[in-house]
Write a structure and sequence with these properties.
The structure is a homodimer. Helices cover about 70% and strands about 5% of the residues of chain A. Chain A is mainly alpha-helical and about 160 residues long. Chain A has 2 domains: about 30-135, Arc Repressor Mutant, subunit A (Orthogonal Bundle), CATH 1.10.10.10; about 135-164. The termini of chain A are close together.
Chain lengths: ~160, ~160
DNA sequence: GGAAAATAGTTGAAGCCTAAACTATCCGGT
DNA sequence: ACCGGATAGTTTAGGCTTCAACTATTTTCC
């Protein structure tokens, strides 16, 4: 069961400012990059990050994905995917097809236009990220990648423990 | 159970710049932690991260802050702060006062209830972060903090360059 | 076969967020 | 004193997001 606030506090001696500072810096870094990517997607392609992410999923799975699979991969609610898919379909970037074997399910795939659009966006996106993180040396990037892997493991372990 | 973006990408396209992998991992880490914090704020205090963040700003400035100052500190639009402030005021956690010297400006400050509520939330929040990042050693946390500082510098340099 | 449970997706209400247009007020230069 | 530009906030339209309630279909199991 989840640790409640009091318990967490009780066996959490002071000195946690340290973890808090780390978290705030992590958040700041991510937000800076994410805000810039959103800004550029909007300015250069008149699109949004969630749309881009959804197209990216489909690009990787040419056979199509069901809305549910997309929802799990993007870690968002399925209601959210319903809306995104509707907008992308209206723009002609994706098409839906009802499953032959399960009439509840429908799979989404890129249209030719969708593939074309995504290719342009994706190339630009990769360049932006490389540009923003280009100030780090290869060694720094590798070290950061490894430490973030450790952080991810720590968080996942924390979630297991309280949520399982 | 949900796949995260990074894992979902792992089976994907060849020819990936390692900056992109680094960015995806950074994003995954942040999102995991942020989602958990949002979930707990909601479950335990029936509040949201933006509300919590706004209260945190006010806590740090007992003399009060104008909406514009809050907007800049939180790095969000001023229209956004208008709405947040209205909701917090309605809950009785903050109060507004029109500036004596500038009739356009109004400053926000915590009410007694707001201070009490925030104290509880803040203590729990600090514990959650410590718990989630507790799997890292002190040395790892320090190294990560430093590398994220480098990353932040790289990003802001990139923004200067393209924005100036 | 048929009831019950699980699964796929949609909808609605509410909050968060932005950009852009708008109102009200202040300030600086002439 | 006044006009024009800056500044403080609000409003509006639209997109993103969640949760919870809902429909439709499939699966499980007796």
């Amino acid at each position: 069961m989840p640790l409640d606030a009091e318990t967490a506090l009780a066996d959490a001696p002071p000195g946690h400012k340290d973890e808090l500072r780390l978290w705030l810096r992590l958040l700041t870094c991510t937000n800076l990059i994410e805000a810039e990517i959103r800004r550029r997607l909007r300015a250069e392609f008149d699109t949004t990050l969630p749309r881009f992410d959804l197209l990216a999923q489909l690009e990787r799975h040419p056979g199509g994905l069901t809305l549910g699979e997309i929802s799990r991969r993007m870690m968002v609610s399925n209601g959210n995917v319903t809306g995104l898919a509707a907008r992308l379909e209206e723009e002609g970037l994706v098409e839906r097809r009802v499953s032959a074997t399960d009439r509840r399910a429908q799979s989404l795939r890129l249209t030719a236009k969708g593939r074309r659009e995504f290719a342009r966006q994706s190339a630009a996106h990769e360049g932006w990220v490389a540009e923003l993180l280009g100030g780090l040396s290869l060694a720094e990037r590798e070290a950061l990648q490894a430490l973030l892997g450790r952080a991810k493991a720590s968080v996942t372990a924390g979630l297991e423990e309280s949520g399982a």
